[in-house]
Specification:
Layout lengths: L2 H6 L1 E10 L3 H9 L4 H4 L3 E6 L4 E6 L7 E11 L4 E8 L1 E12 L2 E12 L2 H5 L1 H29 L1
Antiparallel strand pairs: 1-7, 2-3, 3-4, 4-5, 5-6, 6-7
């Protein structure tokens, strides 16, 4: 695959969520991926395959679903780290880094992926700004959903 093609389909994202809850509570909620659809509207379904892997389906504002199989690479509550490897419509990794911030928590989401979904690859050049905006909307909704869930206890 030419290097320009790889760059065209490669995305790096970083989102920072400041939450009014203790780091341990935020970490615990983020560690329960099967619960994400209950508080994160764009995470449509998560199905466990075994103790360390599962499938997930996402859909934000744009009319397409992304399906991935995720495998846990790191689960370290003391360091506040959760990391997965992904394959499917997206291939790469995602990581949560959770730590204290003021009286609450700073949760940082980093993602490094290459898009494999044919539709998104086909429209990569003209669609990239929309795909990035779609991801930003998804992350904002996730932060609001998690904040509401943590506030309810």
């Amino acid at each position: 695959m030419p290097d320009w093609s790889r760059r065209l389909h490669h995305y790096r994202f970083r989102s920072v969520w400041l939450l009014d809850a203790p780091p341990a509570a935020v970490y615990a909620a983020l560690a329960q991926a099967e619960e994400y659809p209950r508080w994160w509207p764009q995470v449509r379904e998560v199905t466990a395959l075994d103790e360390r892997s599962g499938t997930a389906r996402f859909r934000s504002l744009l009319p397409y679903d992304l399906k991935v199989t995720a495998t846990e690479r790191v689960r370290d509550p003391e360091a506040g780290l959760l990391e997965i490897a992904m394959r499917g419509d997206l291939a790469g990794w995602a990581r949560w880094t959770v730590g204290p911030a003021g009286g609450g928590t700073r949760a940082v989401f980093d993602q490094d992926v290459e898009v494999h979904k044919p539709l998104l690859r086909r429209f990569a050049l003209v669609g990239r700004p929309l795909f990035v905006a779609n991801h930003a909307l998804m992350m904002r909704a996730g932060r609001r959903g998690l904040a509401a869930r943590l506030a309810r206890g």
